[in-house]
Design brief:
single chain, alpha/beta, Rossmann fold, six-stranded parallel beta sheet, 8 helices, globular
Length: 243
Protein backbone atom coordinates (compact mmCIF):
# COMPACT_ATOMS: atom_id res chain seq x y z
CA UNK A 1 0.00 0.00 0.00
CA UNK A 2 1.38 3.44 -0.88
CA UNK A 3 2.35 5.77 1.94
CA UNK A 4 -0.45 7.92 3.28
CA UNK A 5 -0.20 11.51 4.52
CA UNK A 6 -0.96 10.33 8.06
CA UNK A 7 1.57 7.49 8.23
CA UNK A 8 4.35 9.58 9.76
CA UNK A 9 2.13 10.44 12.72
CA UNK A 10 1.24 6.82 13.56
CA UNK A 11 3.16 4.45 15.78
CA UNK A 12 3.86 0.90 14.64
CA UNK A 13 1.27 -0.22 17.19
CA UNK A 14 -1.32 2.09 15.59
CA UNK A 15 -0.66 0.63 12.15
CA UNK A 16 -0.97 -2.92 13.43
CA UNK A 17 -4.22 -2.15 15.25
CA UNK A 18 -5.80 -0.63 12.14
CA UNK A 19 -4.71 -3.56 9.98
CA UNK A 20 -5.76 -6.26 12.47
CA UNK A 21 -9.05 -4.57 13.30
CA UNK A 22 -10.09 -4.32 9.66
CA UNK A 23 -10.24 -0.53 9.64
CA UNK A 24 -9.89 1.46 6.43
CA UNK A 25 -11.60 -0.91 4.00
CA UNK A 26 -12.56 0.71 0.71
CA UNK A 27 -16.33 1.30 0.56
CA UNK A 28 -16.37 2.61 -3.00
CA UNK A 29 -18.20 5.45 -4.71
CA UNK A 30 -21.96 5.71 -4.95
CA UNK A 31 -24.07 5.70 -8.10
CA UNK A 32 -25.59 9.18 -7.82
CA UNK A 33 -22.97 11.45 -6.25
CA UNK A 34 -23.03 15.14 -5.49
CA UNK A 35 -20.09 17.42 -4.83
CA UNK A 36 -20.05 19.29 -1.53
CA UNK A 37 -17.61 22.19 -1.08
CA UNK A 38 -17.36 23.11 2.60
CA UNK A 39 -16.54 26.67 3.67
CA UNK A 40 -13.94 27.63 1.04
CA UNK A 41 -14.30 31.33 1.78
CA UNK A 42 -11.95 34.21 2.48
CA UNK A 43 -12.11 33.64 6.24
CA UNK A 44 -10.38 30.28 5.79
CA UNK A 45 -8.26 31.07 2.73
CA UNK A 46 -7.25 34.69 3.23
CA UNK A 47 -7.50 36.94 0.21
CA UNK A 48 -4.27 35.81 -1.43
CA UNK A 49 -1.72 32.99 -1.20
CA UNK A 50 0.76 33.82 1.53
CA UNK A 51 2.46 32.02 4.44
CA UNK A 52 -0.03 31.15 7.12
CA UNK A 53 1.66 33.13 9.89
CA UNK A 54 1.31 36.25 7.75
CA UNK A 55 -2.22 35.51 6.63
CA UNK A 56 -3.60 34.94 10.13
CA UNK A 57 -2.60 38.45 11.17
CA UNK A 58 -5.59 39.67 9.14
CA UNK A 59 -7.60 36.46 8.71
CA UNK A 60 -7.57 34.69 12.07
CA UNK A 61 -8.87 31.37 10.67
CA UNK A 62 -6.74 31.31 7.52
CA UNK A 63 -5.07 28.12 6.37
CA UNK A 64 -2.44 30.03 4.39
CA UNK A 65 -0.86 28.84 1.16
CA UNK A 66 -2.23 25.31 1.55
CA UNK A 67 -5.72 26.74 1.15
CA UNK A 68 -4.92 27.98 -2.32
CA UNK A 69 -3.45 24.64 -3.37
CA UNK A 70 -6.77 23.19 -2.23
CA UNK A 71 -8.70 25.76 -4.24
CA UNK A 72 -6.82 24.75 -7.40
CA UNK A 73 -7.70 21.08 -6.82
CA UNK A 74 -11.35 21.92 -6.12
CA UNK A 75 -11.56 23.93 -9.35
CA UNK A 76 -10.56 20.85 -11.35
CA UNK A 77 -13.13 18.69 -9.58
CA UNK A 78 -15.85 21.30 -10.02
CA UNK A 79 -15.24 21.43 -13.77
CA UNK A 80 -15.53 17.66 -14.08
CA UNK A 81 -18.68 17.46 -11.95
CA UNK A 82 -20.40 20.30 -13.79
CA UNK A 83 -19.52 18.70 -17.11
CA UNK A 84 -21.49 15.62 -16.01
CA UNK A 85 -24.34 17.66 -14.55
CA UNK A 86 -23.81 16.53 -10.95
CA UNK A 87 -25.38 18.56 -8.14
CA UNK A 88 -22.89 20.97 -6.57
CA UNK A 89 -23.50 22.17 -3.03
CA UNK A 90 -21.51 24.83 -1.21
CA UNK A 91 -21.57 25.85 2.42
CA UNK A 92 -20.32 29.00 4.05
CA UNK A 93 -20.81 30.75 7.36
CA UNK A 94 -23.60 33.11 8.25
CA UNK A 95 -23.44 35.50 11.18
CA UNK A 96 -25.36 38.51 12.43
CA UNK A 97 -23.40 41.74 12.34
CA UNK A 98 -23.73 42.13 16.11
CA UNK A 99 -22.34 38.64 16.72
CA UNK A 100 -25.31 37.67 18.90
CA UNK A 101 -25.70 34.33 17.14
CA UNK A 102 -22.05 33.28 17.51
CA UNK A 103 -23.15 30.90 20.22
CA UNK A 104 -20.54 28.42 21.40
CA UNK A 105 -18.00 29.64 18.82
CA UNK A 106 -17.38 32.59 21.15
CA UNK A 107 -16.24 30.33 23.97
CA UNK A 108 -13.05 29.03 22.34
CA UNK A 109 -11.47 31.94 20.46
CA UNK A 110 -11.19 35.56 21.58
CA UNK A 111 -10.93 36.76 17.95
CA UNK A 112 -14.28 35.29 16.93
CA UNK A 113 -15.97 38.69 16.68
CA UNK A 114 -13.56 39.95 14.00
CA UNK A 115 -15.21 40.69 10.64
CA UNK A 116 -12.38 40.97 8.07
CA UNK A 117 -13.04 41.99 4.50
CA UNK A 118 -10.94 41.62 1.36
CA UNK A 119 -8.61 44.54 0.67
CA UNK A 120 -9.40 44.99 -3.03
CA UNK A 121 -13.10 44.16 -3.37
CA UNK A 122 -14.17 44.76 0.23
CA UNK A 123 -15.92 41.38 0.22
CA UNK A 124 -17.17 39.88 3.46
CA UNK A 125 -15.05 37.03 4.77
CA UNK A 126 -17.87 34.52 4.36
CA UNK A 127 -17.83 35.08 0.58
CA UNK A 128 -16.75 31.96 -1.28
CA UNK A 129 -13.45 32.67 -3.03
CA UNK A 130 -13.82 33.97 -6.56
CA UNK A 131 -11.66 31.25 -8.13
CA UNK A 132 -14.34 28.65 -7.39
CA UNK A 133 -17.38 30.91 -7.12
CA UNK A 134 -20.78 29.19 -7.24
CA UNK A 135 -22.51 29.07 -10.61
CA UNK A 136 -26.23 29.76 -11.15
CA UNK A 137 -27.28 26.10 -10.93
CA UNK A 138 -25.34 25.41 -7.71
CA UNK A 139 -26.92 25.44 -4.27
CA UNK A 140 -25.31 27.54 -1.53
CA UNK A 141 -26.20 26.72 2.06
CA UNK A 142 -25.48 29.03 4.99
CA UNK A 143 -24.63 27.33 8.27
CA UNK A 144 -23.84 28.26 11.85
CA UNK A 145 -22.15 25.08 13.09
CA UNK A 146 -19.40 22.76 11.82
CA UNK A 147 -21.52 20.15 10.06
CA UNK A 148 -23.14 21.09 6.77
CA UNK A 149 -26.14 19.02 7.90
CA UNK A 150 -26.78 20.63 11.29
CA UNK A 151 -29.76 22.99 11.12
CA UNK A 152 -29.64 23.29 7.32
CA UNK A 153 -31.76 21.98 4.40
CA UNK A 154 -28.84 20.08 2.85
CA UNK A 155 -30.25 16.61 3.36
CA UNK A 156 -33.65 17.59 2.00
CA UNK A 157 -32.01 18.78 -1.21
CA UNK A 158 -30.03 15.54 -1.44
CA UNK A 159 -33.25 13.55 -1.05
CA UNK A 160 -34.91 15.70 -3.72
CA UNK A 161 -32.15 14.88 -6.20
CA UNK A 162 -31.84 11.22 -5.25
CA UNK A 163 -28.22 11.65 -4.17
CA UNK A 164 -26.69 8.55 -2.56
CA UNK A 165 -23.13 9.72 -1.99
CA UNK A 166 -20.84 12.71 -1.62
CA UNK A 167 -17.56 13.85 -3.04
CA UNK A 168 -16.38 15.99 -0.15
CA UNK A 169 -13.83 18.82 -0.20
CA UNK A 170 -13.18 21.97 1.78
CA UNK A 171 -11.99 23.17 5.12
CA UNK A 172 -11.01 22.67 7.79
CA UNK A 173 -10.28 18.97 7.52
CA UNK A 174 -10.37 18.55 11.29
CA UNK A 175 -13.44 20.73 11.79
CA UNK A 176 -16.25 21.28 9.33
CA UNK A 177 -15.14 18.62 6.81
CA UNK A 178 -14.85 15.99 9.51
CA UNK A 179 -18.16 16.96 11.16
CA UNK A 180 -19.91 16.89 7.80
CA UNK A 181 -18.44 13.51 6.88
CA UNK A 182 -19.54 11.96 10.18
CA UNK A 183 -23.07 13.30 9.77
CA UNK A 184 -23.21 12.05 6.17
CA UNK A 185 -22.02 8.65 7.36
CA UNK A 186 -24.66 8.71 10.10
CA UNK A 187 -27.29 9.23 7.40
CA UNK A 188 -25.93 6.25 5.40
CA UNK A 189 -24.36 8.16 2.54
CA UNK A 190 -21.14 6.97 0.97
CA UNK A 191 -18.43 9.61 1.30
CA UNK A 192 -15.25 10.11 -0.70
CA UNK A 193 -13.04 12.78 0.85
CA UNK A 194 -10.75 14.15 -1.85
CA UNK A 195 -7.41 14.63 -0.14
CA UNK A 196 -5.97 17.43 -2.28
CA UNK A 197 -9.23 19.38 -2.01
CA UNK A 198 -9.10 19.52 1.81
CA UNK A 199 -6.92 21.74 3.96
CA UNK A 200 -6.40 22.82 7.54
CA UNK A 201 -4.36 25.35 9.48
CA UNK A 202 -2.74 22.48 11.42
CA UNK A 203 -0.73 19.99 9.42
CA UNK A 204 -1.03 17.32 12.12
CA UNK A 205 -4.79 17.82 12.50
CA UNK A 206 -5.22 17.59 8.72
CA UNK A 207 -3.33 14.32 8.47
CA UNK A 208 -4.82 12.62 11.51
CA UNK A 209 -8.36 13.69 10.67
CA UNK A 210 -7.95 12.13 7.23
CA UNK A 211 -6.65 9.03 9.01
CA UNK A 212 -9.70 8.80 11.26
CA UNK A 213 -12.12 9.48 8.42
CA UNK A 214 -10.53 6.82 6.21
CA UNK A 215 -10.44 4.30 9.05
CA UNK A 216 -14.11 4.56 9.98
CA UNK A 217 -16.36 6.85 7.98
CA UNK A 218 -15.20 7.59 4.43
CA UNK A 219 -12.78 6.77 1.66
CA UNK A 220 -9.93 9.27 1.45
CA UNK A 221 -9.12 9.36 -2.25
CA UNK A 222 -6.69 11.19 -4.48
CA UNK A 223 -7.92 13.85 -6.87
CA UNK A 224 -6.98 11.84 -9.95
CA UNK A 225 -8.99 8.88 -8.64
CA UNK A 226 -12.04 11.06 -8.06
CA UNK A 227 -11.72 12.62 -11.52
CA UNK A 228 -11.46 9.19 -13.13
CA UNK A 229 -14.62 8.13 -11.32
CA UNK A 230 -16.56 11.23 -12.35
CA UNK A 231 -15.53 10.69 -15.96
CA UNK A 232 -17.20 7.25 -15.92
CA UNK A 233 -20.61 8.72 -15.05
CA UNK A 234 -23.39 9.34 -17.50
CA UNK A 235 -24.23 13.00 -18.05
CA UNK A 236 -27.70 14.29 -17.31
CA UNK A 237 -28.63 12.00 -14.40
CA UNK A 238 -30.02 14.89 -12.36
CA UNK A 239 -32.67 17.54 -12.87
CA UNK A 240 -30.88 20.61 -11.57
CA UNK A 241 -32.26 24.10 -10.96
CA UNK A 242 -32.50 26.15 -14.16
CA UNK A 243 -30.10 28.73 -12.73
Amino acid sequence: MSEQVWDRYLTERDKQVFASGGFGARQGYGRRPALLVVDVNYIFCGDKPEPILESIKRWRASCGEEAWAGVAAIARLLAACRDKGLPVFYTTGNRRCDGWDAGSWAWKNPRVTEKPRTADGDLDGNTIVQEIAPQPRDIVIAKHKPSAFFGTPLQSFMVQHGVDSLLLVGTTTSGCVRATAVDAFSNNYRIAVVEEGCFDRSQASHALSLCDLHAKYADVVKLDDALSFVNTLNAGMFELPPG
